[in-house]
Every structure is written in structure tokens, then in C-alpha cells.
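Support request, please re-run this one:
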Amino acid sequence: MIKNNKRRCMFFFIMILLLFIFSGCGSASDEAASSSDPEAIRESQISELESSDLIGNVDTYAAIQGVLAESAAPMPAKVFIIETNESVEDGVGEKYVYSPHYFDLPEELQATSDAEMNVLVKLRSYYMETGTYSNEGIAYTRYVQITILDRSAGTIIHQETLIGSAPFSISEDQSAGYGYVPDYQVLEKILEFFGYSEE
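Re-run finished. Output below.
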């Protein structure tokens, strides 16, 4: 009888131990899964950004101009990126919003507050008419102007404009064709300035 009780106790102890181990592993694997899920990571980053004071100052950042004086970025560089909001209707004027490129920066470059941010990157996107099609449709080429400002010095430390691909072919019933600048090229140019390059 005592032997049976001991065996039962041992059995229950082992089962409880195994249950504890597996439940611990399960939660750890769930955490690992969520931490490697790109959408979950991006949502977390957006949430952190929205709780910072950077977004609230976008209009102020958009107004910063600066004098062109090419130089290296301050060290350590803490960067925030804004871009023109293309959902704004023509004729309303340029409006800036935070750029998703900010989330693609290495963590050590990302500014986490207004007080910390010492480098501002402004991305201004626009189209220019560059030709016509045989059906008299208009061909537009995409441009993205990258302006990098040293906030404390009040200077533009780098500026360049990326020119998009040739406008695509269009069908007879279309009135316009557009070229584009790939997002990865914009990010590469920004990272290149800060010393990050593809190997």
C-alpha cells in the first residue's frame, strides 16, 4: 500500500513537473513567435513612436530649413525621418508626416524623443512631366529629394535628389503614366550617409 502511494505520488510529481516545463516552453515559444512576427514588431514600434513627442512636432520639423553646409552627421546621430504626405490633395500645400523609413533605421540611429533628436531627414516626393505618349497622355517621372539637417547647427549637411525610373507604357485609354523610385533606394541613400552600406 505504501509502495503504491509512493508510486502515485512520484507519478503525479513527474506529471506536474512535465506540465510546468511544457507550459513554460509554450509561453516562451509564443513570445519568440510574436517577437519575430514583422507585423507585431511594426505595431509595437508605431505604438512607441506615438507615445513619444516626435510625432507631435512634425509640423515644426517640416518648417526647419537650414543653410547648405555639407558635413558629417553629429555623433552619436539620433535621427527622425519625415516625408510629404501624398494623400493631401493638390493645391492644398505640402503636408509632412512621419516616415515609415524611420522604423527601418538601425536601433542605434533612431531618436526616441524630441530632446534626443539631433538629425532630421526630410523626404520630399513629387512628379514632373517629362514627356508625352502617342495618345497624347502625359509621362511623369518621380523624384525624391533627401534633405539631412543637423538640428543643433541649423545646417543642411547633405542633400540629393533621386530620379525615378522611366514612366511605364500606358494603354490607349489611359491619360498618364508614371515612373517611380523604389523605397529600398531611398533607405539605402539615407543609411549610406550615416556609414551603413550593403556588403
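Helices lie at 2-36, 38-50, 58-63, 183-193. Confidence is low (pLDDT under 50) at residues 25-34.
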